Amino acid sequence: MNKNSNHLISEKSPYLLQHAYNPVDWYSWGDEAFKKAQKEDKPIFLSIGYSTCHWCHVMEKELKMNMH
After folding, report:
1. H/E run at residue 31
2. pLDDT tens-digit profile, the chain (68 residues)
3. Is residue 37 one of the residues assigned to a domain?
């Protein structure tokens, strides 16, 4: 995984790859995501298309603002 990328960097889907350099640490659907959520006792935020994607852009903007 590239230092500036998240877990989507190795995906084949263009939809997932467009978020591979997003500062949100996204995971694709699978065992790795479920194990991490269970281990950290956190819910899973599931993106099912445009309306959810809107929030990833909001979170990305907020994270970038907080990093400066």
Report:
1. helix 31-40
2. 667 888 999 999 888 888 888 877 888 889 999 999 999 999 988 776 655 566 767 777 777 777 65
3. yes
Is residue 1 one of the residues assigned to a domain? Answer: no
The whole-angstrom separation of Cα 31 and Cα 51 is 24
Q: State the residue range of the domain holding 44.
A: 7-67
Cα 33 to Cα 36: distance, rounded to the nearest angstrom: 5
Helix (H) or strand (E) holding 51: helix 50-67
Domain-located, residue 2 = no
